[in-house]
Amino acid sequence: MNRRHCATAAITLVCALALLTSTGQAAAAPVPDPAPTASSPAGPPPRYTNAELETVREQIETLYRKAGAATDAYNLAEEQAKKQSGEIVKLARAIADGQARIAALKDRAGAQAREQYRNGGLPPGAQLALSNDPKLFLDGINQVRQSQQASKSLLAELKQTQQDLETYTQDASAHWEKLETDRVKQAKAKKKINARIKAAEKLESRLEKEERERLRRLEAAAAAEAQTAWLSSGAIRDVSGEASAAGAVAVAFATAQIGKPYVWGAEGPGSYDCSGLTSQAWLAAKRPIPRTSQEQWRLLPRIDIQDMRPGDLIIYHADASHVGMYVGDGTIVHAPRPGRDVTLAGAGSMKILGVVRPDK
């Protein structure tokens, strides 16, 4: 019996370690069921030591972080798709206006041609130019010049409108191609998100209630350890900046969402993902910012941690896949991951990439 329990524990640990090291895959292999015992033929739920549960915790964290990166890719593709759709609508209107303009110009040109035909091929001004009356002759010369200039202007306008119409059509075609590319990106990102979240949820669902509670305690302990190390490093020893007026509004909005669930791609009001929370908070402060954490990191002004003040955004992980809002005293408000709610956390509880300021 002891050998069987040892073998089961070893198999479980090896599988968990295999899950941890295979981070390149979208979904993780399931944690194996324990071998049945004589007292329980169906086999009890797996029971993990703290070390084994820590391995599972790390794997779940990795899956959710990768899902977060895929969520950013999805949100960015969605944002770009919306932009392309808007451009296509504008171009469609421009094309319609151009077509109407060309039709009107052709009508004008046709009217001029019909008028000349009715007068023997000569415009009225030319006919007057042939008059024996000197005054009518001079007036006719001016009218001929004006008519010629009008004809040239009409032809030039028609040519320019046709060129614009061709440009609009080409631009619309290019935007359609980009839109389709963005939709493909969205579909791929969504597939990755679903696969990774499903894999993480499957791992967590195999845990007993007591084990899930221990998992939460391990998460809290890991975060506390990282936060303590960060504070001990003196990273925010001299941080004392006060929130700007807009920053205070953003902080108030973000903290008011505490307790609402994380849902990937959500921008409120009932749920948020990490960048959905920060972007909506700054929108409430009338300072629109990029939708995703990666774009927030790429486009917003960066500042040193020592200059940080409430309302600033802290970007996490090497791939900028997570973001939280600094609220002061070494604390952030953020939407952690699926299965968790918007909450306060230590600003140093995750690997910091850098800090950006939306209202700099």
Task: Describe this structure as you would to a colleague.
The protein is of the alpha+beta class. The protein has 8 helices and 6 strands; from the N terminus they run ααααααααββββββ. The protein has helices at about 1-20, 50-120, 125-130, 135-205, 210-230, 245-255, 275-285, 295-300, and strands spanning about 300-305, 315, 320-330, 330-335, 345, 350-355. Strands 1-6-2-3-4-5 form a 6-stranded antiparallel sheet. β3 (about 320-330) and β4 form a beta hairpin. α6 crosses α7. The chain is elongated and about 110 Å long. Residues about 1-40 have low confidence and may be disordered.
List key phrases describing it:
alpha+beta; single chain
In short:
The protein has eight helices and six strands, in the order ααααααααββββββ.
